[in-house]
Amino acid sequence: MIRTIVIGPRGKMGRLITQIAENSEHLQLVGAVGPRGRKYIGQDLGQVATLGRELNIPVVDDLTTVIEDCDVIIDFSTKEMGLVVLQLAQDYQKALVCGTTGFTSEEMALFQQASQTIPLLYAANTSKLVNVMSQLLQLATAMIGQETDIEILEMHDRWKKDAPSGTAKELGEVIAHELGKELAELAVYDRAGTGERKPGTIGFHSVRMGDTPSSHTVLFGGLGERLELSHHATDWRGFAQGACDCAVFLAQQPPGYYGVADGLKL
């Protein structure tokens, strides 16, 4: 069994990851870590993650007190907590699956550096279907990317902290790299004002409202027609299942930087 620690077990992803890991044939929960000051610190993980039963695992606020007991850490928390977890994973030589978003390019470089000494899998989206969508985008971009206008529309709930979403950026990077460019060269955010659309750019549009689930659509606009590739999530279970499957994969790998396509063998 792969001994697993969940970071942020009260969050919408943390709760589902805990539920799936508890029922996994491959993962064994050995710890859970929440942010300092939260009322649930010290309570049983089963209660915190609303499993309806106790697991005899208290939620702590200091990763160092439990990290030596694990093989892999799954972190879907905040960027501030994520950077702390990253450093400790390096210090204690533990595999890390991170799905937290909102990191700067400089902070993402720290993940790349860490992967030289630990197995590390970073993904803004651990859904299998989203990653199938990425492969379809490669094909579509190769065939029509040069002759169409490309726009990315994403929707999330009112509580999401970063925009565009990490998934939208990853989709944009897939398209840009297929075009032989870096996303920073092509991305246009918050389009406003007057003037025609600049050819060859990738437009990003973010919607934040209510409890809207994750939704991403990439549009390839031609003259007289358009192609749309979309993914719509009805809940977060597919993302959590993907994260747990990636943890099983990662715990058995040497140091390196991995993606969901590696973890899910896509």
Automatic annotation (TrEMBL):
Top EC category: oxidoreductase
Gene Ontology molecular functions: 4-hydroxy-tetrahydrodipicolinate reductase
Chain sites annotated for binding NADP(+): K39
PROSITE patterns: DAPB
List of catalytic residues: H156 (proton donor/acceptor), K160 (proton donor)
Residues given in the record as (S)-2,3,4,5-tetrahydrodipicolinate binding sites: G166, T167
UniProt cross-references to Pfam families, sorted A to Z: DapB_C, DapB_N
Keywords: Amino-acid biosynthesis, Cytoplasm, Diaminopimelate biosynthesis, Lysine biosynthesis, NAD, NADP, Oxidoreductase
Coiled-coil regions listed: none
Biological or metabolic pathway of the protein: Amino-acid biosynthesis; L-lysine biosynthesis via DAP pathway; (S)-tetrahydrodipicolinate from L-aspartate: step 4/4
Cross-referenced InterPro entries: DapB_C, DapB_N, DapB_N_CS, DHDPR_bac, NAD(P)-bd_dom_sf
Residue ranges of domain Dihydrodipicolinate reductase N-terminal in the record: 2-125
Catalytic activity, as annotated: (S)-2,3,4,5-tetrahydrodipicolinate + NADP(+) + H2O = (2S,4S)-4-hydroxy-2,3,4,5-tetrahydrodipicolinate + NADPH + H(+); (S)-2,3,4,5-tetrahydrodipicolinate + NAD(+) + H2O = (2S,4S)-4-hydroxy-2,3,4,5-tetrahydrodipicolinate + NADH + H(+)
SUPFAM superfamilies: Glyceraldehyde-3-phosphate dehydrogenase-like, C-terminal domain, NAD(P)-binding Rossmann-fold domains
Domain Dihydrodipicolinate reductase C-terminal: from-to ranges: 130-262
Annotated residues for binding of NAD(+): G8, P9, R10, G11, K12, M13, G99, T100, T101, A123, A124, N125, T126
EC number: 1.17.1.8
Assembly and interaction partners: Homotetramer.
PANTHER family recorded: 4-HYDROXY-TETRAHYDRODIPICOLINATE REDUCTASE 1, CHLOROPLASTIC-RELATED (PTHR20836:SF0), DIHYDRODIPICOLINATE REDUCTASE (PTHR20836)
HAMAP family associated with the record: DapB
Family: Belongs to the DapB family.
Protein name, entry field: 4-hydroxy-tetrahydrodipicolinate reductase
Organism from which the protein derives: Enterococcus pseudoavium
